[in-house]
């Protein structure tokens, strides 16, 4: 879980460092391009050049992304799509990201932002190496954020991932659990899986079939979890199926994209978009 205190602190850091950057590279998980955006960033980031980077495109159902791409473009943001794990990050940054910001900056300084698990470390670590440097002490900040130089015209600022301070919609919570951004509380796990199961049954039955390595679709998530445990031989004491283990394994493999491509966000899920 996340803690409001941490979020406040992370936000404070972001605010302080915002003055030093001209642009924002905001990562979202392409499987949930709306839910995986901490919308609370919006007022922090206004007046900055902004790119929304749909990451993990390799495990997203690209055909469902048109709406979201337009949605962000209409807000005045640039939209890029990639799979940071699959591409050469350095060349993606220099050839695509750098060129997507306006030419007016001779030295471009960009803040990398996004909620947990969207790929920020994958991006930063792949270019970090020896070039990473820690910013000196800034008053009021206990730990300096990291500047990483991509080349002598382009610097990135690594920031802590921040989440919503309050999730106003259960669907968003479940989606964030299904993509692996939030570690669920015990009681949330099953609800998230139930939500996911019903969603897959309607929109992506192949995900269920792949998870179970079977051609039939169980009637509900409880039966699904039993079959999943049975298939994997997850047995608990007393010779019952280890449903707890089935839930954790399923969630882990699902968020890693092992069962195929998916997009969880649909405009009709959000009242404000109607
Ligand atoms: P952070 O919390 O935002 O720093 O996210 P990480 O960089 O730690 O990435 C979270 C997980 O997503 C890791 O397991 C990465 O390997 C994985 N990941 C990152 N980028 C991609 C991608 O393009 N495709 C896929 N399939 N996985 C990715």
TrEMBL record:
Residues 8-165 form the CP-type G domain. It is found in: Cytoplasm. It holds the Pfam family MMR_HSR1. GTP binds at residues 55-58, 117-122, 161. One of its GO terms (biological process) is translation. InterPro entries: G_CP_dom (IPR030378), GTP-bd (IPR006073), GTP-bd_ortho_bundle_sf (IPR023179), GTP-bd_ribosome_bgen (IPR019991), GTPase_MTG1 (IPR016478), P-loop_NTPase (IPR027417). It comes from the Bacteria. Its main location: cytoplasm. GO terms for molecular function: GTP binding; GTPase activity. This is Ribosome biogenesis GTPase A. Keywords: Cytoplasm, GTP-binding, Nucleotide-binding. Belongs to the TRAFAC class YlqF/YawG GTPase family. MTG1 subfamily. NCBIfam families: GTPase_YlqF (TIGR03596). Required for a late step of 50S ribosomal subunit assembly. Has GTPase activity. GO terms for cellular component: cytoplasm. The lineage of its organism: Bacteria, Thermotogati, Thermotogota, Thermotogae, Petrotogales.
